[in-house]
Each structure stands twice: as structure tokens, then as C-alpha cells.
Specification:
The structure is a single chain. By secondary structure, the chain is mainly alpha-helical. The protein is built from 1 helix and no strands. It starts with a helix and ends with a helix. Residues 1-118 are annotated as: Disordered. Residues 1-10 have a biased composition (Basic and acidic residues). Residues 11-118 have a biased composition (Acidic residues).
Amino acid sequence: MREREKKKKEEEEEEEQEEEEEEEEKEEEEKKEEEEQVKEEEEEEKEEEEQVKEEEQVKEEEQEEEEGQEEEEEEEEEEEQVKEEEEEQEEEEQEEEEEQEEQEEEEEQEEEEEEDCV
């Protein structure tokens, strides 16, 4: 009788131990899965951050390019203005020259007329 009880108790203890071990394994498995999930989430976060960084860099480059274009356009406008001013000046000088020539011709003509009169 005693032997049986002893055996039964031993079996129960063994069973209990097995259950505990299974429980522990299960917990460890769950822990591992959680850690992996955390890792995956961190990696996703990293990727998102990198994407955001890249997008910001692209935006920055586009802005710089736009500013460069604006500067170029401004320079071209300035050059155009300078050209126009130079052309205007040339025209004015030409007009002055023509006026001077006309005046000289008139004076010559007047002199000739005076000489003719005399």
C-alpha cells in the first residue's frame, strides 16, 4: 500500500514538474515573439525615419534648385535691362550726332547763303 502511494505521489510530482516546464517554455516562446515584434517595429520606425530624411533632402534640393533658377532669371533680367539701357544710350548718341550734323549743315548753308548775298 505504502509503495503504491509513494509511486502515485512521485507520478503526480513528475506530472507537475512537466507542466511547469511546459509553462516555462511557453512563456519563453511568448517572450521571444514579443522581442521579435519589438525588433520589427523598431526597424519599421527606422525605415520610416530614413524615408522622411530622404524626402526632406529631396525637398531641400528642389528648393535650392528653384532658388538657383530664380537667381539665374534675375541675372538674365538684369542683363536684359543693361542691354536695353546701352541701346537707349546708343540711340541717344546717334540722335545727338544727327542733330549736330544737321546743325552743321544748316550753318554751312547759312554761310553759303550769306556769301551768295555778298
